Amino acid sequence: MTISVQLHGPEDSAAVVVLAHGAGQGMDSGFMQTLAGGLASFGYRVVLFDFPYMTRAKEEGKSRPPDRMPVLLETFAEVVAAHRKPGTKLIVGGKSMGGRAATMIARSVGADGYLVFGYPFHPPGKPDHARVAHLEPLRVPGLIIQGTRDPFGKPDEVSHYPLNDALHVFWIDEGDHSLAPSKRSGLSPERSIARALHKARDFIKGL
């Protein structure tokens, strides 16, 4: 199956950022398009793609469950191989499930860093079922941008996980799994995502 890809930003950028989508929505989602547009506006080359199950879901017009992790990782690595460029920084990342996949291939594809928006630290309501075992030994520089209301990992839960110094978690006040604040918080969704994008830019610049 041909992998559907979108390219954003200048082709001659000093960094290529390959981003994968979350479980429920593909690269065309508003969130992924906002990420791509924001990072591209900073001068980075951004590559979005759909995993095979999402491509089939779009073709069939009905939702499908995600592919098994080996398929996700193989697809991710294939996209990286097709779009990385010699002499440029490579950052892998994504939203939720896609971001988790990025952390799992960061070392094997030789990424300079990884960038996750809303990491699924655990299933909602099950903080003891942590998905962090591979993060502790991972020495690739990483940034996870997480909302303080994220049911997949809140500050008091994440603080107990054994993460290493190569990984930084940046918290978005009142943000949910898509970093959006609650209406009653009075905070602006646009400001929250702008904070996330500027933090991502600073992370990439620092690599």
Write the layout of secondary structure elements.
Layout: E1 5-8, E2 15-20, H1 30-41, E3 45-49, H2 52-60, H3 69-83, E4 89-95, H4 97-105, E5 113-117, E6 142-147, H5 155-158, E7 167-172, H6 189-205
Parallel strand pairs: 2-3, 2-4, 4-5, 5-6, 6-7
Antiparallel strand pairs: 1-3
Helix pairs in contact: 1-6, 3-4
Give the rounded overall mean pLDDT. 97
**Fraction of residues in helix:** 25-40%
Q: Strand count, sense and closure of the main sheet?
A: 7 strands, mixed
Count of alpha and pi helical runs = 6
The coarse overall form would be: globular
The parts where pLDDT drops under 50 for at least 5 residues are: none
CATH topology label = Rossmann fold
Number of self-contained structural domains: 1
Number of strands: 7
**Gyration radius over CA:** 16 Å
CATH homologous superfamily descriptor: Alpha/Beta hydrolase fold, catalytic domain
Query: How much of the residues is beta strand, in percent?
Result: 15-25%
Report how far the terminal alpha carbons are from each other: 34 Å
Major beta sheet, strand line-up: 1-3-2-4-5-6-7
The top level CATH class name:
Alpha Beta
Query: Order of helices and strands, N to C?
Result: EEHEHHEHEEHEH
* Structural class by SSE content: alpha/beta
CATH architecture tag: 3-Layer(aba) Sandwich
